[in-house]
């Protein structure tokens, strides 16, 4: 049952995850209002309009426009993606508009491992989320952060973990360290349900699967019919050193995911520092959680069709 006055405003709906969240909100029966930067191409806005989503074009720096866009909204969902100028500054403009318009709830663009436990400086992109969290927690608005571990497409080659051609599972330090994986579609569906849940807590943690490197070798051997083995890349200390070297050798860039940033995320996974502790998958009914087995089986099947 969708609660009354369930107009949800989403920022970042033209991005991959944001579009999935917008579609999930429509599926849940919400009235969806998409906040779009003025000048965004029709190729990005028309598909949203075809879903029945209300498009509101704004200048994020125009406080009056932003407040008007947030008026009558029950929850603001951010799926913005970027560095400091977006995650902190633009999200703060969005937050201020939500507060000014009297919006009761705000979901920030977190969608990651548990950054609250990571040492400061260990992950640039997640440090930005922690910095915004401080602003959000000081604002007179209820907040809910969705923490979901790594996006599951990392298992299909986005990260050097499952080395398909070499039949190896690469790991750092500990092959028995559990890791959290969740598909973007599962994250989107859960976020939509949380946006419509007026009693949602400050943090919700979800994982489509929790699996370690040793278990991945067994799983891949069964799925592929070939023997997969473990491949230890080194210790946590070595990975930390490699990250420092890679970062120091990189030229200044606005790249959201330089190689060293990916290495920082892998460190948070294999060190266990960003591990989700309390899994809230069962809070909402009707979600079919996609496992690592499902992801990898589909990937292997795609190469044999």
Automatic annotation (TrEMBL):
<protein>
    <recommendedName>
        <fullName>NmrA-like domain-containing protein</fullName>
    </recommendedName>
</protein>
<keyword id="KW-0560">Oxidoreductase</keyword>
<dbReference type="InterPro" id="IPR008030">
    <property type="entry name" value="NmrA-like"/>
</dbReference>
<keyword id="KW-0521">NADP</keyword>
<dbReference type="GO" id="GO:0016491">
    <property type="term" value="F:oxidoreductase activity"/>
</dbReference>
<dbReference type="InterPro" id="IPR045312">
    <property type="entry name" value="PCBER-like"/>
</dbReference>
<dbReference type="Pfam" id="PF05368">
    <property type="entry name" value="NmrA"/>
</dbReference>
<dbReference type="InterPro" id="IPR051609">
    <property type="entry name" value="NmrA/Isoflavone_reductase-like"/>
</dbReference>
<feature type="domain" description="NmrA-like">
    <location>
        <begin position="5"/>
        <end position="230"/>
    </location>
</feature>
<dbReference type="InterPro" id="IPR036291">
    <property type="entry name" value="NAD(P)-bd_dom_sf"/>
</dbReference>
């Amino acid at each position: 049952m969708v609660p009354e006055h369930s107009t949800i405003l989403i920022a970042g709906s033209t991005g991959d995850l944001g579009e999935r969240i917008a579609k999930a909100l429509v599926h849940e029966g919400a009235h969806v209002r998409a906040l779009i930067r003025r000048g965004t191409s029709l190729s990005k806005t028309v598909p949203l309009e075809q879903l029945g989503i209300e498009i509101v074009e704004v200048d994020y720096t125009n406080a009056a426009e932003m407040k008007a866009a947030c008026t009558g909204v029950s929850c603001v969902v951010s799926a913005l993606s970027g560095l400091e100028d977006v995650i902190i500054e633009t999200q703060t403009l969005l937050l201020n508009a939500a507060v000014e318009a009297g919006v009761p709830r705000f979901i920030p663009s977190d969608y990651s491992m548990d950054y609250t436990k990571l040492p400061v400086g260990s992950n640039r992109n997640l440090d930005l989320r922690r910095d915004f969290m401080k602003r959000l927690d000081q604002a007179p608005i209820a907040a809910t952060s969705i923490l979901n571990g790594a996006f599951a497409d990392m298992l299909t080659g986005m990260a050097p973990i499952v080395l398909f051609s070499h039949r190896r599972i690469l790991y750092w330090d500990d092959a028995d360290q559990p890791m959290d994986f969740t598909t973007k579609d599962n994250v989107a569906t859960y976020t939509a349900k949380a946006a419509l849940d007026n009693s949602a807590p400050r943090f919700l943690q979800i994982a489509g699967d929790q699996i370690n490197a040793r278990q991945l070798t067994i799983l891949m051997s069964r799925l592929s019919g070939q023997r997969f083995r473990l491949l230890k890349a080194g210790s946590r200390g070595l990975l930390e050193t490699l990250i420092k070297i890679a970062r120091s050798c990189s030229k200044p860039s606005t790249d959201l995911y330089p190689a060293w940033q990916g290495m920082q995320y892998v460190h948070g996974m294999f060190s266990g520092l960003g591990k989700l502790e309390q899994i809230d998958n069962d809070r909402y009914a009707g979600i079919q959680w996609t496992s690592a087995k499902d992801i990898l089986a589909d990937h292997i099947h795609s190469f044999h069709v």
